Target: Nitrite reductase
Amino acid sequence: MYAYTDFDRQFVHARAAQFRDQLERHLAGQLPDDDFRALRLQNGWYIQRHAPMLRIAVPYGVLSSRQLRQLARIAREYDRGYGHFTTRQNLQFNWIPLPQSADVMDLLADVDMHGIQTSGNCIRNITSDVTAGVAADELIDPRPYAEVLRQWSTLHPEFAFLPRKFKIAISGAKEDRAAIGWHDIGLQLRRNEAGEVGFQVFVGGGMGRTPIVGQEINPFVPWQHILLYLEAIVRTYNRFGRRDNMYKARIKILVKAEGQAYFDAVNAEYQAILNDDAGSHEQIIPEAELARVAASFVEPQGVTPVPGADIFEGASPAYRRWLERNVHAHRVSGYRSVTLSLKRLGLPPGDITDAQMDAAADLSDRYSHGELRVSHDQNLLLPWVRESDLPALYEAAKAATFATPNIGLLTDMIVCPGGDFCALANARSIPVAAEITERFQDLDELWDIGDIDLHISGCINSCGHHHSGHIGVLGVDKDGSEWYQITLGGSDGSTLSGAAVPGKVIGPSFAADEAADAVEAVIATYRRERQAGERFLQTVRRIGLDAFKQATNAIRRTTAAQH
Model:
């Protein structure tokens, strides 16, 4: 992972000291709420439904065991003993008292972490493939490029106050595991016919009130010029984005409205930056700078290819299930990456206790060279596991509650914090997720149902990515009551799901006591209608939505009068 330089460490410590001064002036009554609000948001501090919430950046999802232990300490000493991993590869704390927030920022800076630009109308945490650098299908390692982009975008003076928040994702593998089509900018690393490395660039994706999949704006930007090209994209958006209406301020609305005219404006701006901007050529990435950053992303000392083995030989049924679902192919012979599932009874998806953080850090030190990853779907991953260590890791993960063999199955759902915590939410998402999880605990049944992406959001902001779920659940408010809209057929752009596309609504929303019943009816319809070997999404696309509408309408009680 990236090794902080003296400059990097001075930077985050100076930022923490700056925040402490701002906080002390605010608590002393010298800095009004409105003025302090903008400053705390720039460091990831929200005031949510019940208490302050801190969002901590985990750049492109890479964590060290040392950092995770520090997060465990913060959870134990300053929060209520747990944290929550999000779909943007961040970690959130929900109960830290504001007067102690500067102490937490110092603790984060001590382990090269911060909350800078995890909030506000700026370029947010840049995300990537959770298996970047170890994936068997990887073409080009995206991590060095993601780190260059992180450094470029952090406190960029021109983009500190954009029309709305801005999200970038980057992938370097054959399969898109970063959902790049659903981002303001999606970057796919590739090689041209001459073997040169560059980026296929997509722009204008996003969820929320108006789900739109990003469009290709340029099939190949040389990697040396990517900062200049992104500068052109964001500068054009900054100039023409809708600041008069926050619901129309995202870049996706500008791209949809202007189409080719926006693309032309970006490409003209790109040429103008190259030809006319003073100092623009200093933003052409030198080979030496990429090499400096890439030096942090070499294989850990001691990783050596060894002949691969049949990891299933002699496996018990329970161990085999874990191998099939939680263990993944690796580019280095004799190694695997392993998902530690954070989806289990008793805790909301993505939540992790301080003790579990410490346990995951221990597993990382013992089996993965002290490195972990945070996944887009709210799990942890160990990227450097020897095949010979898999049996021991399984037993240790099982003891730490991380070995649920459900990765990619129904209970491996994406869920936002919803109305239990978020001030923006219209409905709670955690109770719906808990009820569904309780109903589908039979592993034989989960295996029979097969691969399904279930995504749940508590409001239209779509932090639970319900639009891209094979089954999406959206919480809505009706006269102060919680209701839930069901969508089917969404895709994140992965090989399993096909091209990114938003799901379609299957009818009027369901009351809170009907939401889990509706999901169960959808699953039952699939099991009845599927053909041999057919996955859920294939059945939905083959038979359409009517059969699912009829099945879900049949379970209505509170809403029966609507039909």
Summary: The chain has a mean pLDDT of 96. Residues 6-27 form the longest helix (22 residues).
